[in-house]
């Protein structure tokens, strides 16, 4: 906090004031917000992501949204930073490797997570799992949708060789609430 400029400090104070108005509990909600804030502020190369993270947090305060929306954002963003999880429920998860770089952006009121370099995207459920290799794309936080570009899907998990049975993807879309996607 001491290393931040006065403008950023003022922005953060306003968000903290909102947490009081929204009646967030000190623990775990405000503590979770603070932990996520510190994690984004100190992440390697995270300057742009930190500013965007603060902008999204501010947006809840500016429109005086229900506190649960800020809590959901904090939970998502913290998990994205630490585990690269796009979406997780008790029954499914979509994630990248923890070393995969990402960037946050707000475009026309929508929060996007961009994966700009080819990476491994895995999806898992109790009944299915697979990996899309060397893919990139963008994730719509509000709609829980992944828009992928490129990649290779194989069925090596079934015992077939990765070179024997595979699909080259040019574009695809996933509703991340489910362990499936549609491709061209």
Largest sheet: 10 strands, antiparallel
Could you tell me the radius of gyration in angstroms? Answer: 18 Å
Q: What is the first-to-last residue Cα distance?
A: 47 Å
Counting DSSP E segments of at least 2 residues, the number of strands comes to 10
Structure class: alpha+beta
N-to-C series of helices and strands: HHHHEEEEEEEEEE
In what range is the share of β-strand residues?
25-35%
Average pLDDT taken over every residue: 94
The residue fraction in helices comes out at 25-40%
Number of helices: 4
Low-confidence parts lasting 5 or more residues at pLDDT below 50? none
Tertiary shape:
elongated
Characteristics of this structure?
184 residues, alpha+beta, 10-stranded antiparallel sheet, 36% helix, 33% strand
Descriptive report:
It is a single chain. With 184 residues, the chain is α+β, with helices and mostly antiparallel strands. The chain has helices spanning 6-21, 26-42, 47-62, 67-83, and strands spanning 85-88, 92-96, 103-107, 110-125, 129-140, 145-149, 152-154, 166-168, 171-175, 182-183. Strands 1, 2, 3, 4, 5, 6, 7, 8, 9 and 10 form a ten-stranded antiparallel sheet that branches. Helix 2 (26-42) packs antiparallel against helix 3. The N and C termini lie far apart (47 Å). The model has no long low-confidence stretch (mean pLDDT 94).
In a nutshell, what does this entry contain?
This protein has helices spanning 6-21, 26-42, 47-62, 67-83, and strands at 85-88, 92-96, 103-107, 110-125, 129-140, 145-149, 152-154, 166-168, 171-175, 182-183. It is an alpha+beta fold and 184 residues long. α2 (26-42) crosses α4 and α3 (47-62) runs antiparallel to α4 (67-83).
């Amino acid at each position: 906090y001491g290393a931040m400029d006065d403008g950023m400090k003022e922005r953060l104070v306003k968000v903290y004031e909102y947490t009081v108005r929204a009646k967030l509990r000190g623990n775990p909600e405000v503590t979770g917000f603070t932990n996520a804030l510190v994690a984004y502020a100190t992440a390697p190369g995270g300057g742009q992501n930190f500013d965007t993270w603060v902008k999204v947090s501010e947006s809840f305060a500016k429109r005086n949204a229900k506190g649960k929306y800020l809590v959901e954002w904090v939970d998502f963003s913290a998990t994205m930073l630490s585990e690269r999880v796009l979406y997780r429920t008790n029954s499914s998860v979509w994630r990248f490797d923890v070393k995969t770089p990402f960037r946050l952006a707000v475009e026309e009121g929508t929060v996007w997570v961009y994966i700009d370099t080819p990476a491994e995207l895995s999806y898992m459920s109790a009944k299915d799992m697979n990996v899309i290799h060397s893919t990139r794309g963008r994730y719509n936080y509000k709609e829980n949708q992944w828009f992928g570009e490129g990649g290779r899907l194989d069925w090596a998990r079934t015992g077939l060789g990765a070179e024997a049975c595979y699909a080259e993807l040019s574009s695809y879309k996933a509703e991340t609430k489910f362990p499936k996607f549609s491709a061209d």
